[in-house]
Amino acid sequence: MHKIKIGDGLISEGEPCFMIAEAGSNHNGRLEQAKKLIDVAVAAKADAVKFQIYKAESLYSKRTPEFSYLKGQNVYELIKSIETPREWLKELAGYCEARNIIFLATPFDFEAIDLLAKYVPAFKIASFEIVDLELLQYAARKGKPMIISTGMANLCEIEEAISSIKSVGNNDIILLHCNSLYPTSVEAVNLKAMETMRTAFKVPIGFSDHTLGIHIPVAAVAMGACVIEKHFTLDRTLPGPDHSFALEPDELKEMVRGIREVEKAKGSGIKEKSALESDEMYVKARRSIHAKVNIPKETKITEDMLIVKRPGYGIKPKFIDMVMGRVAKKDIKEDEWITWDAV
User: Fold this and answer.
1) Pairing assessment for the beta strands 48-53 and 18-24 based on DSSP bridges
2) Is 313 exposed, middle or buried (0-12, 13-18, 19+ CB in 10 A)?
3) pLDDT tens digits, residue range 114-133?
4) What is the mean pLDDT of residues 269-280?
5) pLDDT in tens, 17-72
6) What is the torsion angle, in degrees rounded to the nearest 10, for the CA atoms of residue 163, residue 166, residue 167 and residue 169?
7) Pure H helices in 189-241
8) Residues 6+ away with beta carbon under 8 Å from 15
């Protein structure tokens, strides 16, 4: 599996997880709120902060029925109200550069792709757009890495998307397992699908999460996710479709911290005493062969004279059969550990 470079980061197994703080439309149409979201992502030590660039006119029909999780809201009017103004892009990208965080945004139309090409080091494509192969190819022709969410997609649809991207000469593809539920119940998550996708497509695999809380994305990293994407907000009580299931600032910070700890805990995979486990514990808390009774010099040692207990300064327990039948070279006191020079 080759490594994919985004900004200064490398995306691949064995590299630090690339963490995308998904601001989406949680700016609520206010540029200053968008910048505050960037500040929160920086404080949390995320690698990137991501927005969404769409226009209601080209995204939804005005006749679209309402979604069950957005009861009472006209879909077209809602989307219209939370568009990210395209005139913000230069300023948001510049603000991210000044704050030393990667600026990303999801394009939903060809114009958005053209505009973003000047500002983003990679294109993130939303789950619902995975079947729009023309859109995928248009973005892929820009020559930037493609991060594709796969909510609701089956392996055939994912393969078609990958083939479309590769057909225009772009092989830098990252797939994110995802669930198109807002919020996602834990029963629907299916983290094992990451391994299925990794085996099937031989590309870096991550997880775009819509569950409540931070424990599921942390678990995804433990299972090998190379990228985590998670919605966040300044306040879950703010109006808008994505605030209620998003992380608040302290939670985002805790998620990043937890993921970095899990990465350290995963280790090398070599099963041995770690450098941090003390030699004192290695010896004092392990067992060795001890004298159960006083054993005078020249005494032939029998099984009932021996006991295995801590500390481990004496002969290892696995050699007890070799000790039995030997003769004591010196007086061995009761409860004294037995060493090879004593028998």
Assistant:
1) parallel
2) middle
3) 999 999 999 999 999 999 99
4) 85
5) 999 999 999 999 999 999 999 999 999 999 999 999 999 888 888 887 877 766 76
6) 180
7) 193-201, 215-222
8) 3, 9, 226
Last residue of a domain, one of 236, 266, 296: 266
DSSP assigned state of 340: G
Asked if residue 314 lies in contact with residue 289, where contact means CB atoms within 8 angstroms, the answer is yes
Distance CA 35, CA 14 (A): 32
Pairing between β-strand 4-6 and β-strand 9-11 as defined by DSSP bridges? antiparallel
Claim to verify: residue 112 and residue 149 sit in the same structural domain: yes
Burial (CB count <10 Å: 0-12, 13-18, 19+), residue 160: middle
Report how many domains make up the chain. 2
- Residue 258 covered by a domain: yes
Structure tokens at 18: 């690339």
Cα–Cα distances (Å) from 335 to 122, 183, 322, in that order, read 68, 62, 19
Cα-trace Rg, the chain: 29
Do residues 314 and 295 lie in contact, with contact meaning Cβ atoms separated by under 8 Å? no
175 and 298 inside one domain: no
Confidence of residue 285 (pLDDT cuts 50, 70, 90): very high
Question: Are 104 and 9 in the same domain?
Answer: yes
> For residue 76, what pLDDT is reported?
82
